[in-house]
Amino acid sequence: MNLPQYQYRGAAALIALQDRFLREFVAFWRQAKAAGLQLPQNTGDPSYDSLEALLRHILRAARGYLTWICEKLELPDPQVIPTWEEYEIEKHADEYLDHLAERWAAPLKDIPEQRYFDQTYLSRWKAPYTIEEMLEHAVTHPLRHTYQLERLMGR
Questions:
Q1: Which of 96, 120, 113 lies closest to 14 in space, CA to CA?
Q2: Could you tell me the domains of the chain?
Q3: Which residues partner with 9 through β-bridges?
Q4: Which of 35, 76, 109, 131 has its CA 20 to 30 A from that of 10?
């Protein structure tokens, strides 16, 4: 992932890591799908209704983290397109990963380091986060779900 020069290089590192782990999740997701993995039923969370729903959850969350960060920092809308419906998500996953990488690349490059730590904001799920913490959350989210799939596949 080629990123422009950032005022805060820590943000650039987190954005690059998120891209890497999103792509690793999608690759492992494809392995799980090819293996016929079934997600546990009756979790009460629609993100686990199917493997396609889980993929959509991961990609939609990556969009949501960036739009939330831009909103809190009063930056322009990053214009990330919404994800496709579940029946089309697999077909467009690589294209969407490229789109996410493009949209994530520049909005935060001119934000000074102190802005990543100077204030907490309520997330959409009502937990307080600094911008740095939300970036870290964006990195760990696909990792957590990759781990989940690995456990379900017995690895």
A1: 113
A2: 9-152 (1.20.120)
A3: none
A4: 76
CB–CB of 111/8 below 8 Å?
yes
Least confident among 40-44, 50-54, 128-132, 147-151? 40-44
How much is the pTM? 0.93
Cβ(50)–Cβ(37) below 8 Å: no
DSSP state at residue 106: S
Cα angle value 19/137/126 (rounded, 5°):
135
CA angle 67/16/103 to nearest 5° reads 35
Q: CB under 8 Å, gap of 24 or more: what pairs does 81-89 form?
A: 83/56, 83/59, 84/56, 85/56, 86/50, 86/52, 86/53, 86/56, 87/52, 89/52, 89/55, 89/56, 89/59
29-44 burial by CB neighbour count: b if 16+ within 10 A, else e? Answer: beebbeeeeebeeeee
CA distance 29 to 25: 6
